[in-house]
Amino acid sequence: MKVALFIPCYIDLIYPKVGIATLELLERLGIEVTVPLQQTCCGQPMANEGDQKHSIRTETQFCENFKDLNFDYIVGPAGSCVKHVKLHMDAIPQTETVTEIRHKTIELVEFLHDVLKIEEFPWADFQHTVAIHNSCSSIRGLHIASRFEWQEPYFNKTEDLLKKVSGVKVETIDRPQECCGFGGTFCVTDEAVSAKMGQDKVADYTRHQVEYVVSPDMSCLMHQEGIAKREKSDLKFVHIAQVLNNGPF
């Protein structure tokens, strides 16, 4: 199988180890991976603010990088960015190529769980108690876990994958599906509310004696990690690709 690797801009700039872990993990699983080197932003921040004018440039650039459709999927380790491409990337004309790019784009957990159906990660060992944070975009947009407000039968694809790693103990916090308060530009426009929501999440982890918070979305973890550091908490935050690949940390 051939895939193109979509590394969101903030991962490239702030969390490069997540990009490395994702690439290494896919290659461990026998996937032929192409990494378009000119990719930048998918356009989500501008689109979230209703700035279609500037979304056009980034969405056009995204499609220029992935227009070579000689691969099966475009895999990205970020639920919110993948959700934008799949559900909201409509500032540009919806040509046949654009439509196919959007259709082929898939989030990493979905790809491993639903497409590859991975049953084991024999190289991985993570002897820690973890809590899972699935982002609002991943839950409500991509449906990688059941939505509690819909009263659906329980499922959690992130949890399914983590439980295949030796040593991992998954701790369920009191309010696992509650928003952490990041919300992209929301944390700038409503910083007091955003900070309080993040503090509530950190307190929930602390009550349950969690060592690591694991998520498919580093954007949410960036927000929560900032709050934890300000509170001098010992909590650590890692992307699920780092756990499944056994590093780099």
The ordered string of helix (H) and strand (E) elements is: EHHEHHEHHEHEHHEHHEHEH
Oligomer: single chain
Question: How do the strands of the widest beta sheet line up side by side?
Answer: 2-1-3-4
What composes the largest sheet? 4 strands, parallel
Rough outline: globular
Helix % is 40-55%
C-alpha Rg (nearest Å)? 17 Å
Mean pLDDT: 94
Q: How many angstroms separate the termini?
A: 27 Å
Explain what you see:
It is a single chain. This protein is an alpha/beta fold and 249 residues long. The model has no long low-confidence stretch (mean pLDDT 94). The protein has a four-stranded parallel β-sheet, sandwiched between helices. The longest helix has 17 residues, at 191-207. Strand 7 (212-215), helix 12 (218-230) and strand 8 (236-239) form a beta-alpha-beta unit. The protein is built from 13 helices and eight strands.
What key attributes describe this structure?
4-stranded parallel β-sheet, 13 helices, 8 strands, alpha/beta, 249 residues
Short summary of the structure?
Helix content is 47%, strand content 11%. It is built from 13 helices and 8 strands.
Give the secondary structure arrangement, pairings included.
Layout: E1 2-5, H1 9-14, H2 16-28, E2 32-34, H3 44-48, H4 52-66, E3 73-76, H5 79-88, H6 96-104, E4 105-107, H7 108-115, E5 129-132, H8 136-141, H9 157-162, E6 169-170, H10 186-189, H11 191-207, E7 212-215, H12 218-230, E8 236-239, H13 240-245
